[in-house]
Amino acid sequence: MKKTYSVEEYIEENTHFSEALSILRNIINTTELEETVKWNAPVYTLNNKNVIGLGAFKKHFGIWFFNGVFLEDKQNLLVNAQEEKTKALRQMRFESVKEIDKNIVLAYVKEAIENQKLGKEVKPDRSKKETIIPQELKAILASELKTSFESLSAYKQREYCEYISSAKREATKQTRLEKIKPMILQGVGLNDKYKNC
pTM of the predicted model, to two decimals? Predict the structure, then answer.
């Protein structure tokens, strides 16, 4: 994905929805929100807090409200992109310019600003998650491996535990155990090679 440096550039790159994105941008820019680019997309902030974002996808475009869960949604326009996963974020999706009602969009944006001023936001759950070590992993956590495993962060330990317990067949569990033994001894996490340094 090409890095986007400005909102204008983002709109130009999404030619299939450039007119619609410009309309939404103009509505948002009538408010006190500050326009920025984060995660290669337009984001609008209030006192450095994310309030709204713009997005264009293959078949739809829209506005996402970072704490949209607090919006009244009288028009029943908001969707939760991932039920059971997304706690605060809500999206207002459109498929064509004709669907944009400027007054309704502005009302939602103003309500989101008010909610931000009131401090309404969903705080991330920072509680410690319990690590349940599967029996197969417990069996191999002998002397040297046990020390290495215990020196890993709780997150890395959970990654390994979930990797083993998610295998359905016993043969798969054994193959996975053989794969992770040297990784645990090296003190690396299961997915470290995929993470940016």
Answer: 0.63
112 dihedral zone (left: phi>0; alpha: psi -120 to 50; beta): alpha
Residue 23 C-alpha from the chain's centroid = 25
pLDDT in tens, the chain (197 residues): 568 788 999 989 998 999 999 999 999 999 999 999 998 899 999 999 999 999 999 999 999 999 988 999 989 899 887 776 777 889 999 999 999 999 999 999 999 999 999 988 877 666 666 778 888 888 888 766 888 888 888 888 888 888 988 888 999 999 998 899 899 988 888 888 766 54
Bridge partners, residue 140, by sequence: none
Architecture of domain 7-117: Alpha-Beta Complex (3.90)
**Domains of the chain: which residue ranges?**
7-117, 135-190
